[in-house]
């Protein structure tokens, strides 16, 4: 029993020492990684907002409406010319490995299958 108690205190002390050494060695790498990820997210957010002003955006910027989630833009093609031509859902990706998330993929499939509709919702009691 005494051996177990001595081993416990020995390894408890060693574990704390090992943890402190590991933390000292890797803390700066962990912080740098966190800062890099934060910058990438911020860059993506800025890119989403300014996308209509980049040459890769093939639509009239004034036709685009930013909604942010679950897609970044709904583009009402022809709106600025008062000549409706179509509606496009668009998501902006800035990273080389950026992909649609599962929810976005689901909506993309729904649009591709033609599962899109129009509904006018009247609020009858609103003007009383």
Give the total of beta strands.
Answer: 3
Regions with pLDDT < 50 over 5+ consecutive residues?
none
Q: What is the helix fraction of residues, given as a range?
A: 40-55%
Largest beta sheet: strand ordering: 1-2-3
User: Overall mean pLDDT score?
Assistant: 88
Q: Mind summarizing the main beta sheet? A: 3 strands, antiparallel
In whole angstroms, how far apart are the ends? 82 Å
**Proportion of β residues?**
5-15%
What's the number of domains? Answer: 1
- What's the helix count? 2
Oligomeric status: single chain
Question: Which structural class do you get from the secondary structure elements?
Answer: mainly alpha
Rounded to an integer in angstroms, the radius of gyration calculated over CA atoms is 27 Å
Protein name: Holliday junction resolvase-related domain-containing protein
InterPro entries: Hday_junct_resolvase-rel_dom
Pfam family, one: Endonuc_Holl
Domain Holliday junction resolvase-related: 14-122
Blueprint of the fold:
Elements: H1 2-50, E1 64-66, E2 73-77, E3 86-90, H2 102-112
Antiparallel strand pairs: 1-2, 2-3
């Amino acid at each position: 029993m005494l051996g177990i108690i001595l081993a416990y205190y020995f390894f408890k002390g060693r574990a704390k020492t090992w943890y402190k050494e590991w933390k000292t060695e890797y803390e700066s790498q962990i912080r740098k990684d966190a800062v890099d990820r934060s910058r990438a997210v911020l860059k993506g957010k800025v890119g989403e907002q300014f996308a209509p002003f980049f040459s890769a955006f093939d639509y009239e910027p004034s036709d685009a409406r930013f909604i942010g989630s679950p897609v970044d833009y709904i583009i009402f093609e022809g709106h600025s010319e008062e000549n409706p031509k179509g509606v496009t859902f668009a998501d902006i990706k800035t990273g080389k490995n950026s992909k649609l998330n599962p929810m976005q993929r689901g909506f993309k499939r729904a649009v591709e299958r033609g599962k899109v509709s129009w509904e006018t919702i009247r609020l009858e009691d609103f003007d009383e």
